[in-house]
Design goal:
There is one protein chain. The chain is α+β, with helices and mostly antiparallel strands. The protein has one domain (4-144): HIT-like (HIT family, subunit A, 2-Layer Sandwich). It contains five helices and five strands. It has helices at 4-7, 53-74, 100-109, 118-128, 138-155, and strands at 18-19, 23-27, 37-41, 78-83, 93-98. The chain has a five-stranded antiparallel beta sheet. Strand 1 (18-19) and strand 2 (23-27) form a beta hairpin. It is globular, with a radius of gyration of 16 Å.
Length: 156
């Protein structure tokens, strides 16, 4: 069965992974690490302190559920959660999976390092993987995360 969005010329990775009342979860559009997701509030704000009470009340559960989906599907060693809002001033949170494969790639390129610094790894990965990664199907991973989230949301 062909995916209608691909037939229309749009990648499934560009459509939301999850759309809730207060948040949209999408694949990162600038880095092709499978499972790297961006969580953004529907109401754009420049600080968490500006977020409405309803959004704040659902932020933790949204991050926890999305992290659980990444952990289940991608099986990373760790999922980083970061808020920078440097390039785009509006609040958006990065959920970044650090996998064994990614760590090995990092150490291969940084042979003098013996420990991983999450911020340095994430910055390096964002600069290094700006195009699809050979042998990894990001869209397939996103579909599995979507399915996990849909199943979990239907049980709630």
């Amino acid at each position: 069965m062909r995916d209608r969005t691909k037939r229309a010329g749009q990648s499934r990775s560009l459509s939301p992974v999850l759309a809730k009342e207060n948040f949209i979860v999408e694949a990162c559009s600038t880095c092709y690490i499978p499972g790297y997701l961006i969580v953004r509030p529907r109401a754009a704000v420049e600080s968490l302190s500006q977020m409405n009470a309803a959004a704040l009340a659902t932020l933790g559960p949204t991050l926890a559920m999305t992290t659980a989906a990444i952990e289940t599907v991608v099986r990373p060693q760790r999922v980083y959660c970061a808020l920078f809002s440097e390039e785009r001033r509006a609040v958006h949170l990065h959920l970044f999976p650090r996998t064994e494969w990614l760590a090995s790639q990092y150490f291969a390129g940084h042979p003098d390092e013996i420990e991983i610094s999450g911020p340095r790894l994430m910055d390096w990965a964002r600069r290094t993987f700006q195009k699809p990664i050979r042998g990894m199907d990001r869209d397939e991973i996103l579909e599995k995360i979507r399915a996990w989230l849909a199943l979990t949301a239907s049980k709630a």
